[in-house]
Amino acid sequence: MIRVLLVDDQPLIRSGFRALLDLEDDIEVVAEAADGAEGLALAREHLPDIALVDIQMPVLDGIETTRRIVADPSLACVHVVILTNYGLDEYVFHALRAGAAGFLVKDVQPEDFLHSVRVAARGDTLLAPSITRRLIDRYVTQPFATAVGKSLKELTNREREAVALVAQGLSNDEIADRMVISPLTAKTHVNRAMTKLHARDRAQLVVLAYESGLVAPGGS
């Protein structure tokens, strides 16, 4: 069962998403919050698999809520998915850097919304490669942190190759096909790279791959 926490200051938005989720046999809404501070408290109480968090809220916005969830070791099981009205913007990028697993525009089609919840629950990123490139190209203007650069040097050649393929939007099975290795080995390369780069999930790994220069913005 996928356990979901809804965090949005608009009751109509929360009720709409809840109505969709409640129809699914494998998804359960465990709590709702009207701001980030309440959402953080409920996340600690219920330990959901997914926290659907609005980007702009009173008291505590979605970026800071994401940052605090990611920083709390007791909430390591929680994948944050940012909800936005505006699509690609600087707020979304900062939320991804803070540790969000991806983002959804609120006018998403119901079937795409449900699919995205299930994808996030598996620990996969909710970013198409074209969207990621546009985000990075638009908002990454400063060199990546020294700590990231040093960590990148610790990757083996195969780990670097795997990270580059993750940044292109490939799944572990697709990475295995491209690198001519087993899916288990592909997963191992990705997981080791995440550990060395201190990436919480694949979304952060993608951002780091672009920021570090391992993958060039606007490239294929």
Distinctive features:
alpha/beta; 220 residues
Descriptive overview:
It is globular and about 50 Å long. The chain has helices at 11-22, 36-46, 62-71, 90-98, 110-121, 129-139, 146-153, 157-167, 172-179, 183-197, 202-211; strands at residues 2-7, 27-33, 50-54, 79-84, 102-105. It has 220 residues and is an alpha/beta fold. The chain has 11 helices and 5 strands; from the N terminus they run βαβαβαβαβααααααα. Strand 1 (2-7), helix 1 and strand 2 form a beta-alpha-beta unit. Helix 2 (36-46) runs parallel beside helix 3, helix 8 (157-167) packs across helix 11 (202-211) and helix 9 packs across helix 10.
Oligomeric state as shown: single chain
Structural class: alpha/beta
Biggest β-sheet: strands ordered side by side in the sheet: 2-1-3-4-5
Question: Helix share of residues?
Answer: 40-55%
**Low-pLDDT regions:** 142-146
Annotation field: number of helices: 11
By DSSP, the count of extended strands is 5
User: What is the mean pLDDT?
Assistant: 85
The coarse silhouette is globular
Q: How much strand content do the residues show? A: 5-15%
Radius of gyration: 17 Å
**How do the SSEs run, as a string of H and E?**
EHEHEHEHEHHHHHHH
What does the largest sheet look like?
5 strands, parallel
- The end-to-end span amounts to 37 Å
